[in-house]
């Protein structure tokens, strides 16, 4: 029998002056709640609650952690707290805004602005189902990732890495902003200390070095994931897992089929970002931005990201959109 997931906090629970309304998402590393602040403002609260290390009975507030897992739980807790501290220093429309973070109930909570809209993953799935030659227009892809990279560049300037960039963690809001959510600092710390590296990462979007304990990660690690996201926007599906690309790299063949559908430049950008050798990738977001915005390649009307993405779905029902923030690890569900 599989282990039961820790129970979420009950509705109306008060934590740090915020009142829990309901759970909106849950994953292997935590739970996200819709909550109300003292002024009645809606916020999203992310709770550190790794299912592999802790349990919690229905109605209880504090997690129960077995003695043999306590040191690892505390290590992740510290990393999660430091992540909140670092994100609170970043103010950029393309990075999830952390308004507050605090310790309570033997865990840590991160208070973020509540986002309404849909994830890039939702849009990819909808666009793919239209079965047209192009999943997204090239102009849409370039516009979208130009905005995402502006936010990621600020993150890297603050000496942080995202470590879990994928379409489910790119949120397109109702007011036309593309926002990076669900950073993976605690996930990375636990993977290096524990014996369960593979479940930490989303297949297809994780760089090869994320599977090796002795490897160095840096901006190039997030850049691999950016390339994988662009690939998903072109193909409608994620690329093969990095470990499967070593013996036979089918990604190259798949991209060749897109020649004439997308520009050679965009195809080359994806191949550059997703090089198996970390040193062969762009070493900085700036280098990637420079290529993605190269004169002659980026010719299109400057619409907002939301407007360009939604151009694909004028004939789709409004019910496709979802008003949730996937700001915790949503597992390995991929487009």
β content, as a range?
5-15%
What's the overall average pLDDT, rounded?
A: 84
Structural class: alpha+beta
Shape: globular
Tell me the name of the CATH homologous superfamily of the largest domain: Transferase(Phosphotransferase) domain 1
Uncertain residue ranges: 195-199, 298-308, 311-335
Distance between the termini: 29 Å
Number of domains: 2
Order of helices and strands: EEEEHEEEHHEEHHHHHHH
Number of helices: 10
| Helix amount | 25-40%
CATH class of the largest domain: Mainly Alpha
The major sheet is characterized as: 6 strands, antiparallel
Strand order of the largest sheet: 1-2-3-4-6-5
Structure report:
The protein is an alpha+beta fold and 335 residues long. The protein has two domains: 20-113, Phosphorylase Kinase, domain 1 (2-Layer Sandwich), CATH 3.30.200.20; 117-320, Orthogonal Bundle (Transferase(Phosphotransferase), domain 1). It is 33% helix and 15% strand. It contains ten helices and nine strands. It has a six-stranded antiparallel sheet with strand order 1-2-3-4-6-5, with helices on one face. It has a three-stranded antiparallel sheet with strand order 7-8-9. A hairpin with a 2-residue loop joins strand 2 and strand 3. It starts with 13 loop residues before the first strand and ends in a 25-residue tail after the last helix.
């Amino acid at each position: 029998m599989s282990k039961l997931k820790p129970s979420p906090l009950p509705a109306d629970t008060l934590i740090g002056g915020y009142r829990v309304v309901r759970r909106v998402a849950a994953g292997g590393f935590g739970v996200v709640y819709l909550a109300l602040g003292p002024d009645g403002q809606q916020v999203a609260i992310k709770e550190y609650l790794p299912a592999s290390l802790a349990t919690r009975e229905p109605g209880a507030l504090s997690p129960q952690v077995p003695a043999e897992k306590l040191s690892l739980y505390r290590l992740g807790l510290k990393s999660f707290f430091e992540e909140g501290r670092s994100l609170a220093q970043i103010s950029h429309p393309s990075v999830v805004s952390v308004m507050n973070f605090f310790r309570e109930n033997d865990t840590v909570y991160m208070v973020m602005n509540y986002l309404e809209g849909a994830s890039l993953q939702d849009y990819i799935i909808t666009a793919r189902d239209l079965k047209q030659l192009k999943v997204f227009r090239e102009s849409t892809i370039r516009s979208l990732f130009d905005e995402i990279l502006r936010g990621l560049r600020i993150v890297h300037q603050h000496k942080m890495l995202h470590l879990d960039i994928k379409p489910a963690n790119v949120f397109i809001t109702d007011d036309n902003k593309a926002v990076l959510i669900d950073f993976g600092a605690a996930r990375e710390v636990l993977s290096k200390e524990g014996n369960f590296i593979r479940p930490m990462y989303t297949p297809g979007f994780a760089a090869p070095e994320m599977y090796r304990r002795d490897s160095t990660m840096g901006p190039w690690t997030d850049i691999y994931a950016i390339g994988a996201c662009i690939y998903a926007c072109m193909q409608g599906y994620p690329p093969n897992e990095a470990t499967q690309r070593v013996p036979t790299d089918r990604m190259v063949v798949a991209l060749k089929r897109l020649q004439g559908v997308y520009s050679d430049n965009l195809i080359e950008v994806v191949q550059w970002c997703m090089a198996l050798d970390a040193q062969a990738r762009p070493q900085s977001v700036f280098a990637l931005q420079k290529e993605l915005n190269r004169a002659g390649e980026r010719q299109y009307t400057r619409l907002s990201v939301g407007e360009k993405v939604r151009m694909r779905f004028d004939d789709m029902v409004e019910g496709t959109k979802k008003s949730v923030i996937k700001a915790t690890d949503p597992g390995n569900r991929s487009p």
